[in-house]
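FW: tagging you since you asked about this chain on Friday. Here's the raw sequence from the shared folder, copied in full. Didn't touch anything.
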Amino acid sequence: MKFYQPVDYPEARFEKFYKNPAYVKLRNRIKGILVFIGESHYGDFMLSMPFFQALKEMFPQSKIIFAGHRLKGLEKFSSIFPFVDVYFEFRMKKKREVLKKWFLFYRLCKREKVDLLIDTQRYSIVNLLLALLPVRYRLSYGTGCFFSHWKFNQKGRDRIHDIFQLFSLCRVLGKKDIKIYPEVNFPEQYEKKVEPIISTSEKWVSIFPGASEQVKRWPEERFAKVADALYEDDYSILLLGSLKEKELLLRINNLMKHKPVIPAVIDEEFALDPVYGALFCKKSKLCISNESGGLHFAGLVNTPVVGIFGLKSPVKWGPLSSGSIALYKNLPCSPCKMRKAKLNCPYNRRCLLDISVEEVIEASRKCLGVS
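HL: got it, structure written out here
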């Protein structure tokens, strides 16, 4: 299996911006910053946090506004990420709502004294509508940077990891040293609640067998075999997931010879609050996950990941934690162009199902340093 490393833009592409940093000149002029994120799933949200951290470092006195729709539970993260000052929940389900939503943004910009608009989307209509808002400065890579006051060469962006595309918006403002991992301080009440579980072992492996779409899920019986193999290597197993995935976790438990720990069974709060998912990853030596939120929880706290990729390419969405491995077959039909077909794949989901139990065990042992 090939180990896919996340690819960044060449550093030289931003050298001209570093020589005369725009953010230094703008720092005292910018009162409010509106960042349009749009629909934000767990992975999108986690990947955006290092970007917001860099933005807060550049503009420590400015009010930073996150505009987008967060999935249920993500609001819990506001307690551990101090980089965003205001969350403006925004969702547009119907095209006819465009004008109404635009006026909401107009009023928001006026009320919060927004001077800088950062548009992270690549949809021309959205780029145009946001460009019409009453702000002094605009920053965007959508529509070839056409509506942006700062432009840069995006050649080769299809091979660039999504997080580095976000970072490019900070780099054109002159920010050079950007941390891939945000500074995460878990509140004491979270630490105390996981302590009785975590204290029973010093060698945990977290496994996230679920995913938002069933078509992205590696078979549960294979997760059970991997978990048993690592248990026999003297590692304790945490099976993690949302409350909706509780039955999936119990089925895997029943398929295993050695019993894992399932926090969602101990207390449903562990499954309802995703902050616990990130904290369990932090306490683990390794995380094994489908291409789902669990993978990004581990990346957030720099825990090594074995990511199982089928539909999406890890080149764009792969784990960023040091020492991670992305398993990906890269078939001629990859990345998938037929996601709407769901499980009715004409190739019988070979992209995912061709990844064997042995390959996941081998990758896991490599990450853990087990010979």
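FW: The chain has a mean pLDDT of 91.
HL: agreed, and The two ends are 18 Å apart (CA to CA).
FW: great, closing this out.
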